[in-house]
Design a protein that fits this description.
Helices cover about 60% and strands about 0% of the residues. The protein is built from 8 helices and no strands. The radius of gyration is 20 Å and the shape is globular.
């Protein structure tokens, strides 16, 4: 829908520009790898927003392959967390990155399952067959790719499969259940990023681990732009993923407007 489309486009476009800027900075090898992972995530999320760009990407790399790639990204930050376990701030920072990449992996895996369900062949209905449950009608299961998440273009068989999979005990219902802690983290991280955005200069040291990125003095322009990018990435992913939560939390459908 227009507001969600434009909102996600702005959020992820900003993330992409900032992450590419950070990737171009002089930094250590470990920092560059971390910056590259963030840039890749921002680019993929930006390509998710419009149907044509997302279809172009998934024609080369299916969403299931992308899910595996971002799962590897989660493992990279898990390794950094293990390396920094003796320092609380560093450990928490890297665990947050693990959660964010796990959320991206979860989102892409859900999209892969939805794509498989939508492609199921239609089955002939006998006159005695019950009518299809329309509680998961077109648009309510938007997967985050604004064009490819809709069920409107699916076959009747695919729509029936999506409806069945979204009922309690179905595969999409389980995906929504798994997403509860991930969505909670994305919302928490969004609020936390706003706190950093408005933090006063000189209010303590940069709490983020410098093995993940170059140092940013608290209150400086890079610090605030980084905080804004963190907000855009986490809140954008939360907003983008609301459709996956509809089988468990139907009111999330109202966030697509």
């Amino acid at each position: 829908m227009p507001v969600k489309f434009v909102g996600l486009l702005v959020l992820f476009a900003f993330c992409t520009v900032w992450c590419l800027y950070e990737l171009a900075q002089r930094q250590s090898g470990r920092q560059r790898v971390s910056s590259a992972w963030h840039a890749l995530m921002a680019i993929v999320m930006l390509l998710m927003v419009a149907g044509p760009t997302w279809k172009g990407l998934t024609s080369i790399l299916p969403s299931s392959v992308l899910a595996v790639i971002f799962g590897v990204g989660a493992l990279w930050f898990a390794w950094l967390a293990w390396q920094s376990k003796a320092v609380r701030h560093d450990l928490l920072h890297h665990l947050g990155m693990v959660a964010m990449f796990a959320a991206m992996t979860w989102h892409l895996a859900a999209m892969a399952v939805m794509a498989g369900l939508r492609s199921m062949p239609s089955q002939p209905m006998s006159p005695a067959s019950p009518s299809m449950d329309h509680s998961m009608g077109s648009g309510s299961m938007g997967s985050g790719s604004m064009g490819s998440g809709s069920m409107g273009s699916g076959s009747m068989g695919g729509m029936e499969a999506m409806a069945a999979a979204g009922k309690p005990g179905g595969v999409l219902w389980f995906f929504a259940l798994i997403g509860v802690p991930l969505m909670a983290y994305l919302l928490f991280a969004s609020v936390q990023a706003i706190g950093r955005l408005v933090r006063s200069p000189g209010a303590g040291a940069d709490e983020h681990d410098h093995s993940c990125h170059v140092p940013r003095p608290v209150g400086s322009l890079p610090y605030r732009l980084s905080a804004l990018s963190d907000f855009a990435m986490n809140f954008g992913m939360f907003w983008m993923s609301t459709g996956i939560m509809v089988p468990l939390l139907p009111f999330f459908a109202s966030l697509s407007f």
